[in-house]
Design a protein that fits this description.
Largest sheet: 2 strands, antiparallel
Low-confidence stretches: 293-297
Distance between the termini: 51 Å
Strand order of the largest sheet: 1-4
Family: Belongs to the binding-protein-dependent transport system permease family. LivHM subfamily.
CATH architecture: Orthogonal Bundle
Main location: membrane
Number of domains: 1
Pfam family, one: BPD_transp_2
Subcellular location: Cell membrane
Helix content: over 70%
Keywords: Amino-acid transport, Cell inner membrane, Cell membrane, Membrane, Transmembrane, Transmembrane helix, Transport
Order of helices and strands: HHHHEEEHHHHEHHH
Structural class: mainly alpha
CATH class: Mainly Alpha
Number of helices: 11
Oligomer: single chain
Mean pLDDT: 86
Radius of gyration: 19 Å
Number of strands: 4
CATH topology: ABC transporter involved in vitamin B12 uptake, BtuC
Length: 297
Amino acid sequence: MDLFLQQTVNAFALGGTYALLALGLAVVFSIMGLINFAHGELMTIAGYVLMYCGLAGLPFLLSVPLAISASMVAAVLMERIAFRPVRNSSGATMLVTSFAVAMILQVLFQNLISTRSQPVLLPQLLSDSVTIGGLVIGVNKIAAIVSTLVMLVVLDRFMKHQKTGIAMRAAAEDFGVARLMGIRANTVIAGAFALSGLLAGVAAVLWVSQRASVDPLMGFMPVLKAFIAAILGGLGSLRGAVAGGFLLGFIEIYLAAFLPHEFQEFREPIGLGIVVLVLLFRPNGLIPSAALKAIKV
């Protein structure tokens, strides 16, 4: 029983990171119809800012907001420089653009910083653990769970009660009608990218706090998993992205913990098989987007 509870805590921590990344992808997709595969590079940028802040001797509590801010600024610049000129092009053009941006940033990281993994200085507190009812839980796991819950609550209130959030929800429902009602496309789309950068930055801090390192391809695999989570939850659905992220985290952790040893090498295919099985029964995802078939601009 203790092992099950321990792995459940791990699943919540991993699923929370996937949920934040999937949410960042879903926010942009719901408005633009774009899957931004350069989203992982926003994670990497935040990771490198954490690394350089540590080398400069800045306190971790100051490094975290700087890293998240860098991710947000990079996301807005990415939209302005790379995606705005091709916004009215086909979905395939925007998809290729996102791949091109991702590859350019990866090459820049490799040539300007290092091709190897670099250590990130973290406070000793994140390496400690606490005992709760017989369970030994890492502080970094607790921080990941708490941070995820706080972000989800804040984001929910932002989308429901703030003017910009309401405009994003309206644009996600029907961008054409939203623009006729006076909502400015550039403002909403830039806001969506800034929000996705915020979520990527927070996810990067959580990811780095458990790995204690950063490399040029750090964001590739987490964002690929987040893309799967977004599809699992319902592409374009914000609540679905959260549900899909947590479900994928639980699938991965439980398979790693409870799958017999002789089947561990097949863990990834089995996990994807479970995802496909879920989609067979819920082809539009766990919580489908109401605007799944809406026309995007």
